[in-house]
Amino acid sequence: MTTFRCAAILFDLDGVLVDSTRSVERQWRLWARDHGIDGEKAVAIAHGVRAVEVIRMIAPHLDAEAEVVKLEALEAADHAGVAVMPGAIALVRAIPDGRWGVVTSGRRNLATARLQFAGIPSPPAMVTASDVMNGKPHPEPYLKGAELLGANPAECLVIEDAPAGIRSAHAGGMKVIALASTYPAPALGEADAVVEKLKQIRVAPDGARMLAVSVG
User: Fold this and answer.
1) Of the listed 14, 78, 97, 131, which one is catalytic?
2) I need a labelling partner for 77 at 20 to 30 A (CA). Which of 21, 27, 59, 216 fits?
3) Is 192 one of the catalytic residues?
């Protein structure tokens, strides 16, 4: 069993707290088809990265900002196959008030819709694609999450499901537990620990200020 000590926990959203992989991939394929783009190419890079950056990479001739607005509106309305990740609600409720947040590559309207649909309590802090200049794998999103919680980045623990998010957290000086939901465990080897289910993560107080997060 591995134990991490931290002051706060930051979660990615899609693939960690909410199982939305099928919706995300379905809408990216539909969007790509409508624009004559290879849908598999879009899906291959879409997880954990801001949609605006994906569109700029694969379709630089389009107005990326306008396309993101349309794409994420469709994602927010697409609930087919979307569900809360097993163990997510129990895990966030085990964390003391004000000690956890969500850092997502989606925009705020999409993130809010997903949280509400999944029945996940509103996070004390949330960083979305609209709140940063640089998306994952840049460290800015997770550093912003630590700032909103008033926590030292080195004392934050991140729970992620994508390589881009792992790199973002590590670049910000944070430890990472990876959840093998969207990607298989071998693809998440950069993380400090890898789990198959959120139920393998347990949180307990560790003194007045710190938390002990056990994995195993």
Assistant:
1) 14
2) 59
3) no
